Amino acid sequence: MKRYLGLAAALMLVCGIAFSAQAQQTVKIGFITPLTGFAAADGYSSLESAKLAVDYVNEHGGIKGKKLELVSYDDACQPDQASALTKKLIENDKVVVMISGSYSSPSRAAAVICQQAKVPFTSTYAVHPSIVEAGEYCHRIGMAAPIQGRTGGYFAARELAAKRIALLIMNNDFGVSLAEAFKETAIKLGAQIVYEKKYPLGETEFRSYLNAIKAANPDLIYAPGYYNEAANIVSQAREVGLKCWLMGDEGYDSPKFIELAKSAANGVFITTDLNRDSDRPMTQYFLKNYKKRTNIDADMVGASAFDAVMLVSHILNKVGTDANKIIQYWDTIKNFEDCATGPILMFQNRSAIRPMDIQIVLNNKFRYFYRYYEPEVIYLGKGSEGK
What we know:
By secondary structure, this protein is an alpha/beta fold. It folds into two domains: about 25-145 and about 280-355, Rossmann fold (3-Layer(aba) Sandwich); about 145-270 and about 355-380, Rossmann fold. It contains 13 helices and 14 strands. Strands 7-6-8-9-10-13-14 form a seven-stranded mixed β-sheet, with helices on both faces. A five-stranded parallel β-sheet has the order 2-1-3-4-5, with helices on both faces. Strands 11-12 form a two-stranded antiparallel sheet. Strand 3, helix 4 and strand 4 (about 120-125) form a beta-alpha-beta unit. The N and C termini lie far apart (about 65 Å).
């Protein structure tokens, strides 16, 4: 009997050593994203793009010779789930960096947990300023709302010379924060806001709003929101006979928007950071391989998740897994090119700064239209986000 117990103990010891060695050969990063609920399509894009980046990193040597491992959970776009899952990833899965591939409210909840635990965190495409205000451990890869909204305002009032503007705003963190920056910029540049209303998430009937907008006779409608609602807005705008320019944001940047809006999508302008017409190698790598992986055209959401993994991997290869070294190096990054949406010029107040693009839908495809490099457009204004 003792002989068998001794053999069992030896086997357990050997297995323990093997498992420990295996664990030491991986570097874990955590990832939350909505795979169920209204945002599931974005969650799918985000997760598949993050996996694509992990595969790329591992094919090119991993993290200092170790395999990069993505540990992911479905937050259903719910802040309480995001908080609980972030704690699980930190405490149970022992991730060294957290990435949120979710919307602003869940990302904000996750950021607070990471700041408390002193674990480096980044959001991918969430725009709300408060996400990075959680503290020095929290960064953003995507476009901050003050920058994206301001870009839209410049394009509408300066490039399109729109003098009369209607605002139709999704009533959540995303829509309101974009609209605030757009409105401030457009007014500063001489435009007049002739109509302004908010609508609830999930709204499908916009004709009453649009008829009132038609009566206000605008040159342009700015309607920040997500692709489901946006498709109904642009389709119904055409139905009621509106002939003015229509402008949206990164939330429109999905093949689903064009699929739902059909020909009504043509002529719509959006602010985004994914230039599908770019000849940058990493942009084309992402577009080609995402399509190959999923049989779906890539979008801005996926590009942002891809970039988050690529940037985090770059940092881990430079400084290792020590949290303080990670956040210190993060803030020094300049001209990062290994990303789909880049280049990332720098981080200002822990938010990525990059050239800002305007895309237009032509022949049911997103196409490049205009790019901003001016500091007054693409940099954060003083006091627009906490340090």
